[in-house]
Specification:
- The complex is a heterodimer of chains A (305) and B (662).
- Chain A has 11 helices and 13 strands.
- Chain A has helices at 65-69, 93-97, 112-120, 123-129, 144-157, 171-177, 193-200, 205-217, 235-247, 266-271, 285-298, and strands at 8-18, 26-31, 53-55, 74-77, 80-83, 103-105, 108-111, 132-137, 160-165, 183-187, 220-226, 253-259, 302-304.
- Chain A folds into 2 domains: 8-49 and 107-269 and 279-304, Aldolase class I (TIM Barrel, Alpha-Beta Barrel); 53-105, Alpha-Beta Plaits (2-Layer Sandwich), CATH 3.30.70.
- In chain A, a hairpin with a 2-residue loop joins β4 and β5.
- Chain A starts with 7 loop residues before the first strand and ends with a strand.
- With 305 residues, chain A is an alpha/beta fold.
- Among the domains of chain B are: 2-111, no CATH class; 341-557, no CATH class.
- In chain B, a hairpin with a 3-residue loop joins β1 and β2 (72-75).
- Chain B has 662 residues and is an alpha/beta fold.
- In chain B, the strands form 5 sheets. In chain B, strands 5-6-7-8-16-15-19 form a 7-stranded mixed sheet. In chain B, strands 3, 4, 11, 12, 13 and 14 form a 6-stranded mixed sheet that branches.
- Chain B is built from 28 helices and 19 strands.
- The chains are: A alpha/beta (305), B alpha/beta (662).
- At the A-B interface, β1 and α4 of A face α22, α25 and α26 of B.
């Protein structure tokens, strides 16, 4: 499967020099579009499969350049800029004219060549740090053709690969790519299917089933549990999550990372015209310490970050 | 003249007295006599129980004419009124002073008046002893040259004797006295003796560079702990605003001590050469030093410097290339065997750009035409600079000999030629191009706004730029930047660097091996910006220029690897004189990640990297409460300085640097 120039993927952004998305220094490719709709998602602009206009109010200096460029979408009132996103076709022309850097488009189409060119840029830094590329999102597995081509190319070029995913895709997709992936980060959001559906839009049956299958076939998997106050941070749910991982049979070392809650995504929600739901305060150091002690008593390979 | 000489001596003008003694002899001889008289009569620094001697400030006496390493001697014009007018005039009439022959405007398109840093051949002096130098000097045919060189040795001997007598009078450490009885005329037999000698010769050379250090000291190393002696030496270097030393890439046991001794001391600037893997303990020590606020070491890509030197000077054999070390800030030179003009002069590319843009932009129909015209204009000024430097060298080689360096730097004695007339084994002149990145960014903005997107006419562009209109400046900031590892931007930067820095190619210097280009700004990037109007990189009138080849701060926020990617996309070997790159990292950077960045950058062609790990908050607090941060060290331009010693403008440029977090 070789991608041609005409083949494109929806890419939200590509960041360089990351040290938080896998081992070493990494380039992170954020794919656009996700099958879930987690209410706490830190990249809400990546959830829809199509581009959304983002407007960061805190950066807007009301220079009016956007209104001059696109009167269909933008208007100026005494309160500032108003936006009608339903009229926006995602062309992005307004962005280069915005003098405050307040506008952005959540996704753009990128060719295989262009994406790989970005990945290749930091090759030397991967080599010395044990880093590589991390495919994230959105849900990178929802664009399997491009993902597979990139993974194969990286394997050929000796670039380490990592996938961050919620695994809510048909197993065939995972089966088609896992041999080219060096490591996985897989989210476990909730063990109760109904609560999972309520907060993410979908149940967890396919996710857990996929995890059981991949665990038999792949040797480097880390599970991540984002702590969402009042949603999945009960000891009962966390114990179940840990038990689930502990019960898995297969090749991989079983690693769990429990991630502290934060509300840093609030400006992103506002930028796409969505309300940000704050689930509560970030856990205190004492709470996290207590949690770590307790979860470690059940299963030693749990980190709380 | 005999009478004048006597009067000068009585007035404490030791140097001038010696110079005016033998008017019928050559200037070389007279300069040597001047140094002899200076060493006979100069005050000795006070001994306070230190491990080494001399210590502290090298030049203590107030003299209208005083010796100096770069210019042979200086006139103290700043305190002119404090001297006897008649004697001062007599000095001016009888003693030449180094000057730029052509009086170019010092704050214009070109500036500088030839300058030189060097490191003398410490190793040879310590390993052979100066007595062996006498034998070589006696073989020189020219009488004045031979006798002048002998006067240098005589002056060193007299100074040494005076030091010993003084040390005895204050009951100084016997071991120190015994060592000074031996060196530098007899060879050093122990590491301690070698260090005593290194320090002594450092003062004889009037306190410039230490050169390649660990590979040379290793010759004497026998398991001793000399950190305290080294720190004493460094304090002396610091007290005299001295400069640099090199360690690596081979790591010797003494390397650790040399690095450790630099902790918290401003000078010397320590250059750690790297060739592939760096041992873990050196990694840990280096990053600990940087994070603890030493701003040392900076990092050199050893193989690439070697390759670039070999390509530029194919005649230099490998054994000489091994003597590579930065001198002055970080200029490329060869320890003990080179005379490198550094920095001999600069083209202020931002000034030239500004002049050219305001004059020609409206007449150029295409970006290519505009660009070619700019290159032509910069080349014109560069050629003017080369001529100016050569004229100055012609003057210096006739009027301003340097007998001390002639004796202490190879192969002046064997060539029978003064150091300032091309006697050293290798000679080249380093020129600097300041404002390089300002011009690159300005070109990107002009290409995008006027020629590609045609958002406005050149006339409107210039009007809004020169009016420093707020929204226009915001638009400029949105242009494609150098520093985000974008192919399109970086290729323009690469071409500009190639076209401009290649202007030194094939240019003949007055003596020696030609010119090399560099990007090294010391602290001049602030002053050189003062008379440059607004530039389309978003810089306002009078603001400082860029301080290195790193991207303009604030335009490089994509990621640290993108920043380094843009820099390494340039053919940095073109700036062999040294392409300084300053980078500020968060203290949170792990040792492993810090070296990953260095090695990745070097693999991609990076030549040198200066890293500061100081937070914005700490720097801002130091501006407000300098007393609390007296020892805060930063790398700026190409050297290390106490942050609180910098001017507020300079301080602000350092605070403005983008801080990368892990």
């Amino acid at each position: 499967m070789t991608n041609k120039m005409s083949d494109t993927a929806n890419i939200s952004k590509i960041t360089h020099g990351s040290t938080e998305d896998g081992r070493g220094i990494r380039t992170v490719v954020f794919f656009g579009g996700c099958g879930l709709g987690c209410r706490w998602c830190h990249n809400p602009e990546c959830i829809p499969p199509e581009p959304i206009l983002m407007h960061f109010e805190n950066k807007c200096i009301s220079c009016g350049q956007c209104v001059k460029i696109c009167r269909e979408v933008f208007g100026m009132t005494a309160e500032g800029i108003v936006i009608d996103r339903t009229k926006c076709d995602g062309c992005g022309k307004c962005i280069s004219h915005c003098l405050g850097d307040a506008l952005a488009i959540s996704q753009c189409k990128m060719t295989f060549e262009k994406i790989f060119e970005e990945i290749e840029k930091d090759k030397s830094y991967y080599k010395y740090s044990g880093g590589g590329v991390t495919f994230s999102g959105g849900e990178c597995l929802m664009q399997p053709k491009m993902l597979k081509s990139l993974l194969k190319k990286c394997a050929t070029e000796g670039i380490n690969t990592c996938i961050e995913s919620c695994f809510d895709v048909p197993y065939e997709v995972i089966e088609g790519i896992y041999q080219y992936v060096n490591s996985f980060f897989i989210d476990i959001k909730h063990m109760d299917p109904d609560i999972h559906r309520y907060y993410t839009g979908r149940g967890n049956g396919r996710i857990l089933s996929n995890i059981r299958k991949i665990f038999q076939n792949h040797g480097d998997i880390t599970f991540r549990i984002p702590l969402i106050p009042g949603v999945n941070d009960s000891m009962e749910n966390l114990e179940k999550s840990v038990d689930f991982v502990a019960s898995l049979k297969g090749k991989s070392e079983k690693r769990i990372e429990v991630l502290k809650y934060n509300d840093l995504a609030a400006p992103k929600y506002r930028s796409i015209g969505r309300n940000f739901v704050n689930f509560g305060k970030p856990q205190s150091d004492d709470e996290l310490s207590h949690l770590k002690t307790h979860l470690n008593s059940l299963y030693e390979n749990v980190k709380v970050i | 003249m005999e009478n004048i000489s006597k009067r000068l001596l009585e007035a404490g003008e030791f140097y001038a007295s010696g110079y005016t003694e033998d008017c019928d002899r050559s200037r070389f001889y007279r300069t040597a006599k001047a140094m002899l008289r200076y060493r006979e009569h100069c005050s000795l620094p006070k001994y306070n129980g230190e491990l080494l001697y001399p210590n502290g400030k090298c030049i203590i006496d107030k003299m209208f004419v005083y010796p100096e390493y770069a210019f042979t001697h200086h006139f103290d014009y700043e305190s002119y009124d404090e001297y006897d007018r008649e004697l001062a005039e007599c000095c001016q009439n009888n003693i030449p002073m180094w000057h730029t022959v052509r009086e170019e405007p010092q704050n214009g398109p070109i500036y500088g008046g030839v300058y030189t840093h060097a490191s003398v051949n410490y190793f040879r002096i310590m390993n052979e002893g100066l007595d062996s130098y006498r034998e070589r000097i006696l073989k020189c045919e020219d009488k004045d040259f031979r006798e002048g060189c002998l006067l240098v040795l005589e002056g060193i001997e007299i100074y040494r004797r005076r030091c010993i007598e003084y040390l005895r009078s204050v009951s100084a450490d016997e071991k120190l006295i015994a060592s000074l009885e031996k060196i530098p005329f007899k060879k050093a037999d122990t590491l301690y003796e070698a260090l005593i000698g290194w320090n002594f010769i450092y003062y004889i050379d009037l306190c410039d560079n230490i050169g390649s250090f660990d590979r040379e000291l290793d010759h004497w190393y026998n398991g001793e702990d000399v950190v305290d002696v080294l720190r004493n030496f460094y304090r002396n270097v610091d007290a005299n605003d001295g400069w640099s030393l090199r360690v690596g890439p081979e790591i010797y046991p003494i390397t650790y001590q040399i690095l450790e001794a630099s902790r918290g001391i401003r000078r010397p600037s320590v250059e750690l050469c790297i060739d592939g893997d760096v041992p873990e303990d050196i990694r840990l020590l280096s990053s600990d030093l940087i994070k603890s606020g030493s701003s040392n070491p900076c990092f050199y890509n050893y193989p690439i410097y070697q390759k670039a030197l070999h390509e530029r000077f194919p005649k230099i054999p490998q054994c000489d290339l091994d003597k590579f070390a930065g001198g002055g800030c970080t200029e490329t030179m060869l320890t003990g065997i080179s005379r490198v003009g550094s920095i001999d002069g600069s083209v202020n590319t931002a000034y030239v750009f500004c002049e050219y843009m305001n004059e020609c932009l409206a007449q150029k129909d295409t970006f290519e035409d505009f660009y070619e015209g700019l290159i032509e204009r910069i080349t014109k000024y560069a050629n003017m600079l080369f001529e100016t430097i050569n004229d100055s060298y012609k003057y210096a080689s006739e009027y301003m000999p340097n007998p001390v360096r002639t004796v202490l730097i190879d192969d002046c004695i064997d060539n029978g030629k003064d150091y300032n007339a091309g006697g050293a084994r290798w000679n080249w002149s380093t020129v600097n191009f300041s404002g390089t990145v300002n011009v690159i960014e300005s070109l990107l903005a002009i290409r995008e706004i006027i020629y590609e997107k045609k958002e406005m006419t050149a006339k409107e562009f210039l009007e809004r730029l020169n009016a420093e209109e707020e929204f226009f400046y915001k638009r400029l900031k949105k242009c494609l930047h150098y520093g985000v590892n974008d192919k399109c931007a970086d290729s323009l930067a690469t071409d500009f660097l190639k076209r401009v820095y290649s202007t030194t190619d094939g240019k003949k210097s007055y003596f020696g091996d030609g010119f090399v280009s560099s990007s090294i700004q010391f602290i001049t990037y602030v002053r050189r910006g003062e008379n440059v109007g607004p530039t389309p990189d978003g810089r306002k009138k009078g603001e400082p220029l860029c301080d290195s080849l790193a991207p303009i701060f604030g335009n490089d926020t994509k990621s640290v690897t993108s920043t380094l990617g843009s820099v390494s996309s340039l053919d940095l070997k073109l700036a062999l004189g040294t392409p300084v790159v300053n980078l500020r990292l968060s203290k949170k950077y792990s040792d492993e990640m810090l070296f990953t960045l260095i090695r990745g950058f070097f693999e991609n062609g990076g030549m040198m990297l200066q890293i500061n790990c100081i937070s914005r908050e700490e720097l801002e607090d130091a501006m407000v409460n300098p007393d609390k941060h007296r020892n805060l060290l930063v790398r700026t331009g190409g050297y290390t300085e106490y942050f609180v010693n910098l001017s507020p403008k300079e301080q602000r440029t350092i605070i403005a640097r983008t801080e990368y977090d892990e």
